[in-house]
Amino acid sequence: MNRKLSFNKASNFPEVRKALQEEHYIYQLLLQTLQEKQRAIVEAKTEELLDILVVIQSLAKKANQVTERRLEQFRKNFPLKNQSGKKAAEVGFEIPEPEIQHEYEELIQTIRAIERVNRENQSLLQASMEFTRGFISVVYGANNNEMAIYDRNGKLENKVGSTRTINW
């Protein structure tokens, strides 16, 4: 009994398409939310930023779930590319259906945009923290045992206080 798989119609992979579309939708929501986070950072809206972080955590959890479902569908339906010498995470799937391949490439573009916005947000937060540390140091000085400034990892950076630049 010879059975040949036909890969010429997207309708052959309805579960793959559903999983891929759901994943892309969640990642698009995550991208929009990260862009809202960026706006909140720039506008220094701390309360709004805290609310956005809750949404981001929820979307990230959902994204992990839908990604796992999509990977499961890919594993069931598509062979791995033969790329010897590459790490398992770098090996992709051979997707014979052009429409699904196109949708997958759009998903990858969205994920890259998320990575870019995350890097930008990290830079904005770092600059904000540097400004705040500098301001505290100017206002309270750098050698007081009463106050401390912590770095982004929560470690004691330096104490501030007795060498104020501004006396009030």
List the helices and strands and how they pair.
Elements: H1 14-42, H2 46-77, H3 98-140, E1 147-150, E2 156-160
Antiparallel strand pairs: 1-2
Helix pairs in contact: 1-2, 1-3
Describe the model.
The protein has 168 residues and is mainly alpha-helical. The protein has one domain: Methane Monooxygenase Hydroxylase, Chain G, domain 1 (Up-down Bundle). The protein contains three helices and two strands. Strands 1-2 form a two-stranded antiparallel sheet. Strand 1 (147-150) and strand 2 (156-160) form a beta hairpin. Helix 1 (14-42) packs antiparallel against helix 2 (46-77) and helix 1 packs parallel to helix 3. It is elongated. It starts with 13 loop residues before the first helix and ends in an 8-residue tail after the last strand. Residues 1-10 and 164-168 have low confidence and may be disordered.
Q: In the CATH scheme, what's the topology name?
A: Methane Monooxygenase Hydroxylase, Chain G, domain 1
Count of separate DSSP helical elements: 3
Q: Which CATH architecture would you pick? A: Up-down Bundle
Average pLDDT, all residues = 79
Give the beta-strand count: 2
Describe the structure concisely for a colleague.
The termini are far apart. Strand 1 and strand 2 form a beta hairpin.
Summarize this structure as a short list of keywords or feature phrases:
168 residues, mainly alpha, Methane Monooxygenase Hydroxylase, Chain G, domain 1, 2 strands, disordered C terminus
